[in-house]
Design a protein that fits this description.
The structure is a single chain. The protein is α/β, with parallel strands linked by helices. The chain folds into 2 domains: about 210 residues, Spore Coat Polysaccharide Biosynthesis Protein SpsA, Chain A; about 90 residues, no CATH class. Strand 7 and strand 8 form a beta hairpin.
């Protein structure tokens, strides 16, 4: 079966979550390996979320701690950044407020993390993530595999593979302390907490993926990201692309955030002085050329691609039409 690594804690971000919060917390507290703490940050809920958290705190056999209220809304990325900064355990599992964990989720992820540590060492940033099944708001099955539903290949997890297409879902991952420390504080360019954490682990350490789903990922119309399906995403992106060459803001909203995040990664990761890395850094800088052909050549040099022919073609079309802002860092 393999040895397990040390204790872990769960960090849970909540906002207007009373409808599904009880099922999620109950599934966390039914793990075959319990966390040493459940740390919660609420983002200004005005429903019954805080009351439900207080009820769980009073009766839970696992300590539940709620961070003090923030003076302003932080959103998901800011909330998880705050939670990770307040975490203390050697390993941390982020949690959404509306999912349902399998009882052995923590045990399986921790065992996989032990394998990563044997390969890379505990001092390197490491991340394990697993598959998810999709359910509707009533808990009825929608799809057996999130990644297949989205048309994503979770095994494409090199840092340049992740530059354009994130395959890590934060609510289905386990982080080691080195990954958290290397990722914090999040740069302003970080798009999503899980995408940034995946890039840090891929560039400085390693990732592992477990095919078997570890939880049910609920889709209810209010998910921050959700699972629209690859065909729905493709139709939306093609509509945007069709109207984008005359609208630079749409183009920048589409490809700009990921490219800025990639640039921020070069600032964060330890400097590497080998020639291949220097060529990659120079190519990434050329992505910001005011002229389209140097941008195209740079992307081809880096072999940047999304998952699937149509997504990749859409990216390159957008890259040719895009005009990077001179003020972009």
């Amino acid at each position: 079966m393999g040895a397990l690594v040390g204790p872990y804690e769960v960090v849970l971000a909540t906002f207007q979550g009373e409808a599904f919060l009880d099922e999620q917390i109950d599934s966390i507290l039914r793990q075959t390996l319990l966390p040493q703490r459940l740390l919660v940050a609420d983002d200004g809920s005005e429903d019954g979320t805080l009351a439900r958290l207080e009820r769980w705190r009073r009766r839970s056999w696992v300590p539940i701690e709620l961070l003090p209220a923030s003076p302003r809304r932080l959103g998901s990325r800011g909330g998880f950044e705050r939670l990770l900064a307040a975490s203390r355990a050697p390993f941390v599992m982020p949690a959404d407020q509306d999912d349902i964990w399998d009882p052995d989720k923590a045990q399986r992820l921790l065992r996989a993390m032990a394998g990563l540590e044997r390969r890379w060492g505990a001092a390197r940033p490491l991340l394990v993530h697993a598959g998810l099944r999709l359910i509707d708001r009533d808990g009825q099955p929608l799809a057996a595999c999130f990644h297949h539903h989205q048309g994503l290949d979770p095994h494409r997890d090199g840092w340049l593979d992740l530059a354009l297409q994130n395959v890590v879902t934060g609510c289905a991952c386990l982080l080691n302390r080195a990954c958290i420390e290397q990722a914090l504080p999040f740069p302003p360019e970080a798009v999503l907490h899980d995408w940034w954490l995946a890039l840090v682990a891929a560039s400085c350490g390693g990732l592992a993926y477990l095919e078997q789903p570890c939880q049910s990922y609920r889709q209810h119309g209010r998910n921050l990201v959700g699972a629209a399906g690859w065909s729905g995403q493709l139709r939306r992106r093609l509509r945007e692309a069709g109207s984008s060459c005359g609208g630079q803001q749409r183009l920048d909203d589409w490809i700009g955030p990921g490219l800025r995040q990639l640039r921020a990664l070069l600032v964060r990761i330890p400097h590497r002085h080998d020639q291949q890395q220097q060529r990659r850094i120079a190519a990434i800088e050329r992505l910001w050329s005011p002229h389209p052909w140097p941008r195209l050549q740079a992307a081809l040099t880096l072999r940047l691609r999304k998952h699937g022919l149509w997504r990749t073609a859409g990216f390159y079309l957008a890259l040719l039409c895009w005009r990077p802002l001179r003020s972009t860092p």
